[in-house]
């Protein structure tokens, strides 16, 4: 069902309306809002709150859809950035650094690491959605984990360690914050060793 308003540019279909609502929600979050509100999204679109409610019954539903939308976008960007990196330690370092850079410029990606149903974007790294996202990140690396001897449990624990490292940097980025080559050098020294299996479990 199409609606009137939309700042003079009515969407051609429900699918377009939903896409524009999700894009607006992401922009509101990227703008620094600590909580997503239907009113702010409606104002950005030039529609009433009732129009948004036709597609999403409440803030939680809109947050969940925005998180799902952001997940695909984030994973695609990360996979492109890490394409061709086959060494586990290098991939983990670049994955963490790139994620921190994306979170800095696109705050909506913080939804990937938030607790379900939470209107705030504080990192909840042990939430189900965060751990699942962390594992998806590892699975999309160009690393042949199976050939190198990694098990599902190893990868789940590595994903959790990566997320806990991310959480630490998000909560306290440092004074001054590390970035670029300085950040990557630090991660190579302190995090990369955790992306290596014990010698007795490494396949030749």
Automatic annotation (TrEMBL):
It comes from Nocardia macrotermitis. It holds the Pfam family TetR_N. It comes from the Bacteria. SUPFAM superfamilies: Homeodomain-like (SSF46689). This is HTH tetR-type domain-containing protein. GO terms for molecular function: DNA-binding transcription factor activity; transcription cis-regulatory region binding. Keywords: DNA-binding, Transcription, Transcription regulation. Residues 37-56 bind DNA.
